[in-house]
Design goal:
Blueprint lengths: L4 H16 L2 E7 L3 E8 L4 E8 L3 E3 L2 E3 L2 H23 L8 E6 L5 E3 L18 H11 L8 H10 L10 E3 L1 H10 L3 E3 H4 L5 E2 L4 E2 L1 H9 L1 H4 L11 E3 L10 H7 L10 E2 L3 E2 H8 L7 E6 L3 E6 L12 E4 L5 E7 L3 H17 L6 H11 L12 E4 L16 E4 L7 H26 L6 E5 L8 H10 L3 E4 L5 H18 L4 H9 L5 E4 L3 H16 L1 H10 L5
Parallel strand pairs: 1-6, 6-13, 6-14, 9-12, 15-21, 21-22
Antiparallel strand pairs: 1-2, 2-3, 4-5, 7-8, 10-11, 15-16, 16-18, 17-18, 19-20, 22-23
Protein name: Sugar kinase
Keywords: Carbohydrate metabolism, Kinase, Transferase, Xylose metabolism
Pfam families: FGGY_C, FGGY_N
């Protein structure tokens, strides 16, 4: 069909914005996908590209290689740039602002010459339990196993050979940003997952740094912690420019020119908050992907130390409580893939959208029992602190009298996926009485209308809103943070007002309120889920991690 005049004019208008650099690019390194999203000055996605990847075990620890990082970045960028050329006939030589984000935490340590000392250790690793316990006790502040400082301290405790050579350590987003700009900085939200942040000064908690440095095994090292950490920056702060070498690292064709100002590199928690307009106090979001976290921006610090709740900050530096579960969609995707293989085997292959939508809808159909009919699923591909598991073994369990149906099976899959994160959320709402004005669902699982939204409302017993940007993900949120640089330069609008008044001014959304039968059914399932955890522990003891 020939393009209408309005279509042609729209394409020409976007092409002009691309030539003028009225764009912002966000690239996010997720656990299973690296995605690049280019937006214009109306916050609409005008081009995108992605690259699939997966962590692998290296010396028993989850990792991605440096080669994978750069290959994935270049591939996602190239796909986005090709999208620009195909749709608008433009070669991407300039971009208004760029921002990188990635899965938070983990451990990338470098020597004085900038050489990586050990393979990248991702947030998935739970070998840092001793460090978590000792530091949480020392600070009286929860230091989760996946935090960067826990990784560093565990290396100290283990007397790893490389520790004395550490000159800098950072997150994945911080690493990519550093290599493209030369700047050792980090968005404050991502930084808060490395080491605790003081929300009043927007710097690391100095008293904690002093306590850490005073530990005998740390004092014996030739470095001080504050000299190893990246500098935290709040959203809207220019974080360096794309160097010539950085431009070629991002776009080896040489088409993209250097000099572009970058936003502070953020973590996926921060981009999730932005993508769901959840940076204001008493707002929250649930960001669901390979892992899942539920976050609420707090009015004040929590009264007690709770290992189930992480304290991080928004990209603007406000304190937020987070319940984080390492496992979410990996096991679910594996089961859906199995059904896809069956469809292909009988000569009826279906696309992914149809496959997921059809299976998900059964979970809220009339054939589904409120409590999944006695079926239980354990989605643990990796360890799960909230469930007390150092490793994971995906399991599906049922008693002989359980009602095995497709509807109950899919409902159990979704119920189980949301169960671990409910543990920490219950601590905030039931033990600390945290008040929530709104909770927004965010991530690809909400693409199928109503299903995951309705089940999450049952899990948390609170209304769940899903916005039209729900499937955009963190890369779009990072692009918005990159665009925010324009606004802070112009009128110093704070981030919450910028999101409310500009980005989400006309956003549409749907809200699912909790159904009392679903809430009661989820509670029954959740009780069985908890009582059955010894089965998971037995599987860990009996089934090898590899082979």
């Amino acid at each position: 069909m020939a393009a209408t005049v309005s279509d042609t004019e729209q394409i020409a208008g976007i092409a002009e914005k691309i030539r003028a650099g009225k764009t912002a690019l966000g690239i996010e390194f997720g656990s299973t996908r690296i995605k690049a999203v280019l937006i214009d000055d109306t916050y609409s996605t005008i081009a995108s590209g992605d690259y699939s990847w997966a962590s692998h075990l290296e010396d028993g620890l989850w990792s991605y290689s440096v080669d994978e990082i750069w290959k994935g970045l270049q591939s996602a960028y190239a796909a986005m740039a090709n999208d620009v050329h195909t749709a608008y006939g433009e070669k991407l030589t300039k971009i208004g602002h760029i921002g990188f984000s990635a899965m938070m935490h983990g451990y990338l340590a470098f020597d004085k010459d900038g050489e990586l000392l050990v393979p990248f250790r991702t947030w998935q690793n739970t070998n840092t339990h001793e460090a978590h316990e000792k530091l949480s006790e020392l600070f009286q502040y929860n230091i989760p196993e996946r935090w960067s400082i826990a990784h560093l301290y565990q290396c100290v405790l283990n007397k790893e050979e490389h520790v004395s050579k550490v000159a800098y350590f950072t997150t994945l987003a911080g690493y990519v940003h550093w290599k493209l700009t030369g700047e050792k900085v980090l968005g404050i939200g991502d930084a808060s997952g490395m080491f605790p942040i003081d929300p009043t000064t927007h710097t690391y908690e100095q008293a904690f740094i002093e306590k850490f440095d005073a530990l005998p095994e740390v004092a014996a090292q030739p470095w001080k912690l504050e000299n190893l950490l990246p500098t935290p920056l709040v959203a809207g702060t220019p974080a360096g420019k794309l160097t010539e070498a950085g431009a070629l690292l991002l776009d080896p064709t040489g088409t993209l020119k250097p000099g572009i100002v970058l936003a502070p590199p953020e973590g996926d928690a921060g981009t999730g908050m932005v993508a769901t307009n959840s940076v204001r106090v008493r707002t929250g979001n649930v960001s669901a992907g390979t892992s899942i976290f539920a976050m609420v921006v707090l009015e004040h610090k929590l009264k007690a130390l709770h290992p189930e709740v992480d304290l991080v900050t928004t990209p603007a530096g406000d304190l937020a409580g987070m319940s984080h579960a390492n496992n979410f969609t990996s096991d679910l995707n594996a089961w859906v893939g199995l059904f896809g293989q069956f469809a292909a085997a009988i000569g009826q292959p279906v696309d992914a959208g149809t496959l997921y939508g059809t299976l998900f809808r059964t979970a809220i159909s009339d054939d589904a029992d409120a409590d999944c009919g006695g079926l239980i699923n354990y989605p643990f591909r990796s360890g799960e602190f909230l469930a007390g598991l150092e490793e994971g073994r995906p399991l599906f369990v049922r008693n002989p009298e359980a009602r095995m149906s497709l509807a109950n099976f899919m409902r159990a899959q979704l119920f189980s996926a949301f169960s671990p994160v409910k543990i920490g959320m219950d601590v905030m709402t039931k033990d600390e009485h945290v008040e929530i004005d709104s909770l927004v669902g965010h991530g690809g699982i909400f693409t199928t209308p109503k299903v995951a939204q309705k089940i999450l409302a049952a899990a948390f017993d609170t209304p769940i809103k899903v916005m039209t940007t729900a499937a955009e993900g963190g890369a779009w949120g990072m692009a918005v943070l990159a665009d925010y640089l324009w606004n802070t330069n112009e009128d110093h609008t704070n981030l919450a007002d910028y999101l409310d008044g500009r980005v989400f001014k006309d956003a549409q959304s749907t809200t699912e309120t909790p159904d009392s039968s679903d809430v009661a059914g989820f509670e029954r399932f959740f009780e069985r889920f908890g009582k059955g955890l010894p089965i998971e522990k037995a599987a860990i003891a009996a089934v090898p991690l590899e082979g």
